[in-house]
Amino acid sequence: MIPEILLIVAVTAGLGLLVALAGLGAMWLLRERSIGAMLAVVVVVTVLATVGGVVAITLKMIIEGTPRDIVLSVVVVGGLVGLGVATVLARRVVAASRRLVDAVHAVPASGEFTPPGGLPAELGTIAGSLDQAYRRLRLGHERERALESARRELVAWVSHDLRTPLAGMRAMAEALEDGVVADPETVGRYHRQIRLEVDRLSGMVDDLFELSKIHAGALRLSRNRIGLSDLVADALAGVEQLARAKGVRLAGEVGPVIPVQADAAELSRALRNLVVNAIRHTPGDGSVLVRASVEGGIACLSVADCCGGIPVDDLPRVFDVAFRGEAARTPSADGAGAGLGLAIARGIVEAHEGVIGVVNSGPGCRFEIRLPISV
Predict the structure, then answer these.
(1) Is residue 56 very low, low, confident or very high in pLDDT (cuts 50, 70, 90)?
(2) What is the CA angle 211-361-316, rounded to 5?
(3) Is 111 left (phi over 0), alpha (psi -120 to 50) or beta?
(4) How far apart are CA 364 and CA 346, in angstroms?
């Protein structure tokens, strides 16, 4: 009995190995063909291995007459049923893959991808991944268009802001050169005005350079453990003269020591930009309050002014490049720049993994910087 069992195992294993090798060769040749063809190969290999083994054993057992015919008929019918099911399955998989390909080809220029229904689980996963990829592409294109629009707007606005002071400087320089202005008082006033415009243009160039570093991801931070109280004190000291000239009262409120890991120079610049913006938009009898506190385990720097509030439609655009909230592009009396201060502040805060925002509050608005506390 045992030798017969070993013979049966050896025969079926040998036939199965030969069929498997032939199937692997066929699948290698069809590796770039349809999934349906490869599924058909898998089923054909399985059926042939089974049928071959049964037929060989049946013949070896020398089954004659009706029993042998019955066995062979059952094997043939089973093989045909397997091939039929494999054909149906392969056609279904191929049809599902074609629906997925057609859905990809039908994606419009807007990038709206609609995953087809009735897909097998694996193809459904691929369709979901494609949907997420198209969403990311749409967001990327929207950001790219917004950035390009902001860049064109910035170039147009900065060109105007540069042209205006340059024209005034040229007129004053020509007047001095031609001797049209000769009295010492007017000459001195022209010299002071030219110096003021040069300083303003230098500030604009510095802002443009800083903004270009932020947008290019080239802003390098030298982080150290600093206290927000020192940051607030430095910001108030740096704008005291501007506030005095405008008649604006400055005040600061700082709670307990609030340490953060930050680049002191860059974060100080961001806070100073907010304070300068608040002073410029606060009337002469108003006040600006700079406050440092801890809210929910987050360090918070806020600058509250008396500007009268920002229109609701303008709130989402406050930190956009070159946004001033006003139609006129003529230089202001205090030498305001090209509207880059808030955009620079946002870039610096985001480089510190922080969040910056603005809300209307009381007689004006309140800008807030939120940063992780250093532990």
Answers:
(1) low
(2) 40
(3) left
(4) 20
Give the span between the Cα atoms of 143 and 228, in whole angstroms.
33
- pLDDT tens-digit profile of 198-230? 888 887 788 888 877 887 777 888 888 888 888
| Three-state DSSP class for residue 114 | coil
φ and ψ of 365, to 5 deg: -135, 165
Q: 356: Cβ–Cβ under 8 A, 6 or more apart, which residues?
A: 270, 319, 345, 346, 349, 350, 367, 368, 369, 370
CA nearest neighbour of 300 among 290, 314, 308, 313: 290
Q: pTM higher than 0.90, yes or no?
A: no
Tokens of 13: 């294993």
Three-state DSSP class for residue 282 = coil
* Cβ pair 301, 324 in contact under 8 A: no
Please write the tens of the pLDDT for every residue from 236-284: 888 888 898 889 999 998 877 778 888 888 999 999 999 998 998 898 8
| DSSP annotation string for 298-357 | EEEEEEE--S----GGGGGGTTSTT--SSS--SPPTT---SS-HHHHHHHHHHHTT-EEE
